[in-house]
TrEMBL record, chains A, B:
Annotated organism of origin: Pontivivens insulae
Protein name: Putative FAD-linked oxidoreductase
Required cofactor names: FAD
Keywords, in A-Z order: FAD, Flavoprotein, Oxidoreductase
Domain FAD-binding PCMH-type, chain residue ranges per copy: 28-208
One MF annotation (Gene Ontology) recorded for this entry: FAD binding
Amino acid sequence: MTDFLNDLPDLTLSVPTQAYLEEPRGRYQGRGLTVAKPATVDAVAAVLTRCNARGVGVIPWGGGTGLVGGQVSETRDCVILSLEKLNRVRDCAPGDATLTVEAGVTLAEAQAEAAKVNRLFPLSIASEGSARIGGVLATNAGGVNVLRYGNARDLVLGIEAVLADGTIVSDLKRLRKDNTGYDLRHLLIGAEGTLGVITAASLRLMPIPAERSTAFLAVESPKAALNLLADMQGRLGESISAFELIHRQGLDFLAEHFPAMRHPLESRPDWMVLVEIGGSKGSAAAFETALEAAFEAELVSDAVLAQSDGQRQALWDIRETIPEGNRLTGSISSHDISVPLSRLPEFIERAGVAVRAIAPDARINCFGHVGDGNLHYNVFPAPGRMKADYVNMRGQVQTAVHEVADALDGSVSAEHGIGRLKVGDLERFGDPGKRIAMRAIKAALDPNGIMNPGALFDGAPLG
Amino acid sequence: MTDFLNDLPDLTLSVPTQAYLEEPRGRYQGRGLTVAKPATVDAVAAVLTRCNARGVGVIPWGGGTGLVGGQVSETRDCVILSLEKLNRVRDCAPGDATLTVEAGVTLAEAQAEAAKVNRLFPLSIASEGSARIGGVLATNAGGVNVLRYGNARDLVLGIEAVLADGTIVSDLKRLRKDNTGYDLRHLLIGAEGTLGVITAASLRLMPIPAERSTAFLAVESPKAALNLLADMQGRLGESISAFELIHRQGLDFLAEHFPAMRHPLESRPDWMVLVEIGGSKGSAAAFETALEAAFEAELVSDAVLAQSDGQRQALWDIRETIPEGNRLTGSISSHDISVPLSRLPEFIERAGVAVRAIAPDARINCFGHVGDGNLHYNVFPAPGRMKADYVNMRGQVQTAVHEVADALDGSVSAEHGIGRLKVGDLERFGDPGKRIAMRAIKAALDPNGIMNPGALFDGAPLG
């Protein structure tokens, strides 16, 4: 069925194995005609040209780590276009603080390339060992350093991409300023592969902070966490790179599934914050001063400050293992919401009431990038009960949580994207004018609807 | 001819006065059917709906301060849609660090609103007293603080806009993270009014730095300026908010046209830098230490450090008056280029050779946002000669300068945009694939070609 691709140079074809047909949470079981692995941008263009001529769907595939089913199609047989062989470092210019890599380079490899020249590529997500730059950009990934360095899109200076009809857009400029026409970079970043395939990107590198401090703190409440953030920003400015809220529930799951993992705080508080700063010489001392002031102001009641890289890593391991603890527990429903910063406490309060009205005994693990107004708000069965016991409540819980986020001017997908999982949410909560514009753009750049069909739009985006 | 607009509510119509038909450099003499001043977003939508139905062109008009003719049409009679009455502050939330304003608010007014709540809106350009937020965003304005805070687009969280057919896109979210579909914000920002009219925006506010230091420094060369920047960034990190290169030629023009203005440095060097930092407590002392180190390393040979707000303002006045000195002198050709940072010295060298091969006695004033790789590279007649003497060389000079920028992977419009002035440059230097995508998007969102006709594209963008 994909014989029409057989004669293309720089292209490997193979039968889709299970790895290409599932996603991390096991919610989708995909289908695929073939896995096409181009090694050059011309090969990408050739695949798209031929698929476009035949109306064959194409799913751009990076590391397969997305959490909203953007990488799997259950309803349509597509060519799975894996970028894994398009994985060269094209250019590294530490003097310009830029790194140009192809889409198949993993995020961890890009970070390592930057480190080689004594620079930082600050984007950091739990799946960075597998996630590839193409997918990271297509989904505008977020992660733990957004507070300081922004989302993926904020770290990209230029892109190369192939549109549905095979047109190559070559805009890999490494410039901080370039006002020459529409910003296709930002249109393709976050478009989840529905408008074209990102094949390479020029990334911004940052200086490695001279000093870094990491602490795990006990706070009274989410509101207290926000007060602490405001206080620390006043004292430490932009040097705060991470400010992660953690709830006792997440550590309880870790204690259950990873008994060897030590709780960092004796006091076992309900709410905690993992904070990290990085700055020039003297910033570690400034952080200690800020921490003392926070104790005096009773913004913090207990703390551990990492004294070594090993201790720092241990604190981060706790934060980064929470998603795995959640997965092993098995959620009824998980959410990736954001609201304006000041409304976070109200969100947590109202969402809790809404969830308990549906599933009174459910456990809630609410954690994440509180400094960005972004929470992962996950709902779990009561101890001793099974996910299956709540199967009828799942949709209600999801709707209830999303309605609270929407009522507070928030987003129902802060960083994971829409994929296939949240198409209905986009229809329901998205602005109607925005949806009209999106459909017009989709129809213009992908008139045959071959690019990641079923993602972002329902089955008939152009109807 | 615009009777079809007469009965619309919340809309004022008037005969176009000269102010609406010219632009700052006097290069264009525009035409216009009427000046339509809507006071609400619904009135904007009504105007566009009716113009679209009749195929009547619409030029969105902010403060009229653009430098590339984006706000004037010489070839087609259009409705001039001035946003000046759509000028409300919709919301100011210092706790969320956001400010939501309508398009007709001037940049200076937005800055003042932020200051009222002890916050900073950092975008700063010479025309900020007249430029309005709508135009500032439509052109993705840059200015002196891009080094630290980014371009206009980096300071916008959400927008409201009206598309050509009157569709209102209402996406004024005030979120740091929102991955729900295509980023229309970034598509409309920088589109120069060719896809729709931005009617309001949610802006990001920043903390006001606790301490600020400003200095005027003598450096040996542009290369030395870059070495100084790298050295200071190593010591002071992100606190450097402005790093402006200034050439002796600019100060000579000031001495001629503004004899009361004092040269800040006794040594009268060829190359100077205006640097400003802002940070938490202690950063002013850190700046002085960095300055001492720069003297010891012979990166700086002379310096004046502002000791008061008045002195700071005097230093900035010099920088901000340079464009007016240029205007009074009368340039043969002006350019707004950017190149990767490391290539700036080579650009200055090669462009100088290229210009002098065409106009051997021309004077060059090269200045600007060197920290962003962005230079305003302007060419002037020799003393005692007139612009008219060079009239035949102007096109050649412009082409030569742009060719050097392009050869160094640079941009021929770093911050001023394309407008009508640089349509040919976009055709010549722009990526062909990007141009194809731009035309497809333009045709999709503005099929009748009514939005700012003649800007960005030649007369027949959809042909």
